[in-house]
């Protein structure tokens, strides 16, 4: 049985994908992510059109060595991660605890909520989109800014 999930997403700043099966839309070049190694590197959020709020500070994710490092715009976090059925699973995310002024505190809240919700990953070229929330109502687009230099790379420590 084929289930169609209607979501609106952009995997490029100008591109929009709509009403596609959960496995991705290979006709559009969008594919599910099968392993953490497929998204190894440094990613910067570039398209927050589908996010809960506008980005007020840079959000960056480094995927390397079986883990993830995130800069939320205020604090940083790090933890072991893996991919299950194209979903990012972070086992435990340890974060720094600086007080974040508004609106950085709100951005940090939803970024950490996104990462903790087992978001669905979808890749198209140098872009990856994370989909989360009830009915995948939210998404955040990231662009690959640096591939790992050797092996799976090394994520900075928190």
Folded structure, characterized:
There is one protein chain. This protein has 158 residues and is mainly beta. It has one helix and twelve strands. It has one helix at residues 104-116; strands spanning 5-9, 17-20, 31-32, 41-47, 60-64, 67-71, 76-84, 87-90, 94-95, 120-124, 127-132, 138-146. Strands 3, 4, 5, 6, 7, 8, 9, 10, 11 and 12 form a ten-stranded antiparallel beta sheet that branches. A two-stranded antiparallel sheet has the order 1-2. The longest helix has 13 residues, at 104-116. Residues 1-27 and 152-158 have low confidence and may be disordered.
Structural class: mainly beta
H/I helix tally: 1
Radius of gyration over all CA atoms, rounded? 15 Å
Summarize the biggest pleated sheet: 10 strands, antiparallel
**Element-level helix/strand string:** EEEEEEEEEHEEE
Oligomerization status of the protein chains: single chain
List its salient traits.
single chain, 158 residues, mainly beta, ten-stranded antiparallel sheet, two-stranded antiparallel sheet, 12 strands, globular, disordered C terminus
What is the fold's blueprint, element by element?
Blueprint: E1 5-9, E2 17-20, E3 31-32, E4 41-47, E5 60-64, E6 67-71, E7 76-84, E8 87-90, E9 94-95, H1 104-116, E10 120-124, E11 127-132, E12 138-146
Antiparallel strand pairs: 1-2, 3-10, 4-5, 4-12, 5-6, 6-7, 7-8, 7-9, 10-11, 11-12
